[in-house]
Design brief:
With about 400 residues, this protein is α/β, with parallel strands linked by helices. The chain is about 25% helix and about 25% strand.
């Protein structure tokens, strides 16, 4: 018999993320008030709710009034159903072959990009002897060239879908490549192509009840893309992309009063004094310029703290900023606390969030990393426990 091991020790490592459910629900309300009651919000909780934990966030959002949720794939939809989510779940990247029956059994709403996708769902509906039609959302490629039905195939799709009585074309949508760039001509062409696609469908007697183009940036800045359904993701978690113009200059738009939902914290686990010229961390990539007091904190790239923070990243400790020194390793990071009186083992260290009057946001981390806030949040790994705070 194989040996088994059970531990009663849970989350003993001092490294965790705090997820504020009131802030999450606040952001949902702000967005709903912004777009108006006639527009349905599909709360995008893909990629584990952008690193915040999909089950906990989706439940809080459903309690706050969300009726629709957006996920990437069937398995993400399964997670929501197992968590107890009863609202509609849009599988935005479609159902993979062989998953059709699972999707229907769980009442997921698949996106489709080919007539064959709809036909496979119709066949699954026949096998399951469903008495109601299967609602689908057609994704159209309006110019991003990533995923969607080519416009040239729209008429043949419209003809074919009417030969599938098991299928209801409930929705039609596309995705904007540069919605935050307010004068982007390619975005305007995408909007015009989407409008033309709706006219083509109407010419075939197809009038999808739900029509959607808007992601976070468009939901905030582009009312002409709202139709009656929007898909915000990042804004739910307290961030939006800065609207700008094609020349890079920022737009003078009034930001929505969003609240960051996630704080990320850890502890100091060692403190040591080192002389000038001391090499710190792997490859001795940083050497102290003067005698220094260095704290070792329990976080590394295995938790999602990017190695690109070497040389420009900071953390907060006792309400003060402490620069990261040396290369970030898998489990540990070194910070300079020479200027922080009393810094000691056990001190709380803030990676994202507030400490005293100081704050570091996920956007700050992203800027130091040379990436976007989406990646910074999504990179937070599973070994960092999410603690939901009311």
């Amino acid at each position: 018999m194989a040996a088994t091991f059970t531990s009663s020790r849970i989350e003993t490592r001092p490294n965790w993320a705090e997820v504020s459910l009131p802030a999450l629900r606040h952001n949902f309300r702000v967005l709903q008030e912004h777009v108006g009651s006639d527009v349905t919000i599909c709360a995008v909780v893909k990629c584990d709710a952008y690193g915040h934990g999909a089950p906990g966030c989706a439940l809080a959002l459903e309690q706050g009034g969300a009726k629709w949720f957006g996920v990437t794939s069937t398995d993400e939809g399964v997670i929501l159903r197992e968590a107890g989510i009863t609202g509609r779940v849009l599988v935005m990247c479609g159902v993979y072959r062989g998953e059709e029956e699972d999707a229907l059994r769980l009442s997921l709403t698949p996106a489709v990009f080919r007539l064959q996708d709809a036909a496979a769902l119709a066949q699954a509906a026949v096998r399951q002897r469903l008495t109601s039609r299967v609602a689908i959302h057609l994704k159209i490629d309006t110019g991003m060239a990533r995923l969607g039905l080519p416009l040239a195939d729209l008429e043949s799709f419209a003809e074919g879908i009417q030969r599938l009585p098991q299928i209801e074309l409930e929705g039609v949508f596309s995705h904007l490549a540069s919605s935050e760039v307010l004068d982007d001509e390619a975005t305007q062409r995408q909007i015009e192509r989407f409008t033309a696609a709706l006219r083509t469908l109407a010419a075939y007697g197809l009038h999808p009840r739900l029509r959607h183009l808007a992601n976070t940036s468009a939901a905030i800045e582009r009312p002409d893309t709202w139709h009656n359904f929007v898909r915000p993701g990042l804004a739910l978690y307290g961030y939006e992309q800065q609207p700008c113009y094609g020349d890079g200059s920022p737009a003078t738009a009034l930001p929505l009063p969003l609240q960051p939902v996630l704080a990320w914290k850890t502890h100091v686990i060692a403190v040591h004094d080192v002389p000038a010229g001391q090499a710190l961390g792997y490859n001795g990539a940083y050497k102290t310029l003067a005698p220094a007091r260095i704290a070792t904190v329990s976080v590394g790239y295995g938790d999602g703290l990017s190695r690109r923070l070497f040389g420009n990243g900071e953390v907060l400790l006792r309400g003060q900023r402490a620069p990261i020194r040396g290369r970030i390793s898998m489990d540990l990071t070194l910070v300079d606390v020479t200027h922080i009186a009393g810094a000691a083992i056990g001190d709380e260290v803030t990676l994202i969030g507030r400490s005293g009057a100081q704050e570091i946001t996920a956007r700050d981390l992203a800027r130091w990393e040379g990436t976007v806030v989406y990646e910074t949040l999504c990179n937070l790994t599973k070994r960092v426990p999410r603690r939901y705070v009311e």
